[in-house]
Amino acid sequence: MSGRLIPVSDRPWSGGRVSPRAVCVLAPNASPMTLDGTNTWILAEPGAHEALVIDPGPLDESHLTAISSAVHDLDVKISVIALTHDHIDHSEGAAELAKRTGASVLAWRGRTLARSESLLVDGLEVEVLPTPGHSADGVTFYCRADAALLTGDTVLGRGTTVVAWPDGNLSDYLDSLQLLRDAASNARLLLPGHGPALDDPARILTEYVEHRQARLQQVREALTAGARNPDEVVDVVYAGLDPALREAALLSTRAQLAYLAD
Ligand SMILES: [Zn+2]
Asked: Which residues hold their Cβ within 5 A of ligand 1, which is an ion?
């Protein structure tokens, strides 16, 4: 969801190649919550025959076809599928894509990835950074060769994300942003789960941390001014919000209230 403290980028985004190893296939599921749609990332070492797909996206025939045709154009086959987290807009198509390609599916829960584990796919190396907060199972992938962080919904290409309380947790989320801020000092590209690829990860991470602190301060002030429940806090802190985002704002507000209560 978007936040008014961070300038919302209106850079158009339709996916495509963003770096030597990363190509995005944009899923046709745009909405206020999913922005331009889910980004399905195909990563392959230059000249390799096998590819890693991160976040297959929704179970949608046209999207699965678009993934196959991108893979065909790249002259690779998908051998591994990994998820940044198990929300349906990222994971729903995983089983069908695996069935069609014979790829194995790695996820953070279920068949868990070890902390700091690296995925190796035909010469491509991607490190796994645990980044819970948006959801409990969130991970970020770091492709060192392209200096690219694939952040799922932990950091988006526009606006800010929802802390999907109670599965999501603000304390975890702030720790994850700090971890990413450290990782971002070496990164040149941020490849999010929704919205455009961004080219200054360190600046984006700093803005995200500042935004969260500012929101927490707004919530404290709303409570001091007499707001008595999450709805009343949302009315004050997220005044003028698109009604389609109210549920998300309520989740983030519950996460903020739980954090302040601890
Ligand atoms: Zn998402």
From this structure: 89, 153, 193
